[in-house]
């Protein structure tokens, strides 16, 4: 599937930048165009792969290239004011070759949090192709204002896109990591999961054609109907034997390595990978029961993929989610691993979002109280007790 990716704000820009790097490394060909939009000049300069002409600085009149702080209302305002600048960059990309837009942003900050929903709304008005969002939730340790920003952005962003895929930094935080190093790993996880999903069906020259191909329309159909999505992923390393044969590194299941490629083992490996992917760490943790639609993509060397395994995995997902719309297919790749990526679309039982909203409301009340208190304190400081002094004017 070919995407026009627009990274809004620092996190959004860095993630899209990383998608370009992933595309380069894997030849997946999912990024047809990449644009970064920011109100902070330094963040745009810090990107590695997005072409200079596709880096759009907005809000110069208001914030002079210094960013909007964590003020997402200002982020939304400058995005609205300078939407033509963003549109100019989009005009230069061949949108007729694009299957969908993907607007990427961290929802806890200012520029992306406020600007991404504004851009999504604009794109939906102009184009007929789907507009998807990839929104990143802040860590719970980032504090009240980030949580409040994220809760408000989430509500707005979901409404403006055809589907909002969510990644929760909080579930992926590594203790003892520097913030930057931590984000590096997290961003790699993001591009790997979404890269495999969107890469399915993007068969390049000379690549194997999948036995049961996942094509763009299946991804689009899974995402259509709107709402919120999460992605599960699990992989297992296998050896790619340079002599042409394939040997698994895992020989613990009874047989020698040669046995690993018999149909029963291949099927079992796939079914257990599907379970691990669905029941393991999701990009947004949630209850998978009640998911409206799902897409299962099995990728790896063709010898390790079989229709029976995918069918079984699909059936199991239908039972676990209760959904009647579970699609599945394979994505042959000469990589030394077999992986299952599962897109769960239209999830509704998400305690993490409910908690986020609760904390956001508390933060909002606190901010209101503090503001009122500080106004009162200032008044008490400035005014003399008996009101004997007169201001100049
Ligand atoms: P903006 O530039 O004003 O849109 O704000 P940022 O993008 O810098 O930050 C918004 C939120 O995104 C932060 O609160 C973090 O939770 C998150 N964030 C910042 N940088 C990264 C990153 O590189 N990767 C990920 N996954 N999240 C990030």
Which helices and strands, and how do they pair?
Blueprint: E1 3-8, H1 9-26, E2 31-38, H2 41-45, E3 55-57, H3 60-63, H4 72-81, H5 83-91, E4 100-106, H6 111-126, E5 131-137, H7 144-160, E6 163-168, H8 169-172, H9 179-199, H10 216-223, E7 228-237, E8 239-240, E9 246-247, H11 263-279, E10 293-300, H12 307-321, E11 325-332, E12 337-345, H13 351-382
Helix pairs in contact: 1-6, 1-9, 4-6, 6-7, 7-13, 11-12
The chain binds guanosine-5'-diphosphate (GDP).
Guanosine-5'-diphosphate is lined by residues 9-11, 14, 43, 106, 108-113, 136, 138-139, 142, 146, 169, 183, 186-187.
GO molecular function, one term: GTPase activity
Organism: Haloterrigena alkaliphila
Protein name: Tubulin-like protein CetZ
Compact summary:
This protein has 393 residues and is α/β, with parallel strands linked by helices.
Polypeptide structure, described:
It is built from 13 helices and twelve strands. It is an alpha/beta fold and 393 residues long. The chain has two domains: 197 residues, Rossmann fold; 120 residues, 2-Layer Sandwich (60s Ribosomal Protein L30, Chain: A), CATH 3.30.1330. The strands form two sheets. Strands 3-2-1-4-5-6-7-12-10-11 form a ten-stranded mixed beta sheet, sandwiched between helices. A two-stranded antiparallel ribbon has the order 8-9. Strand 4, helix 6 and strand 5 form a beta-alpha-beta unit. Helix 1 crosses helix 6 and helix 6 packs parallel to helix 7. The termini are far apart. About 5% of the residues have low confidence. Guanosine-5'-diphosphate binds next to helix 1, helix 6 and helix 9. One of its GO terms (molecular function) is GTPase activity. This is Tubulin-like protein CetZ. Pfam families: CetZ_C, Tubulin. Keywords: Cell cycle, Cell division, Cell shape, Coiled coil, Cytoplasm, GTP-binding, Nucleotide-binding. InterPro entries: CetZ, CetZ_C, FtsZ/CetZ, Tubulin/FtsZ-like_C, Tubulin/FtsZ_GTPase_sf, Tubulin_CS, Tubulin_FtsZ_GTPase.
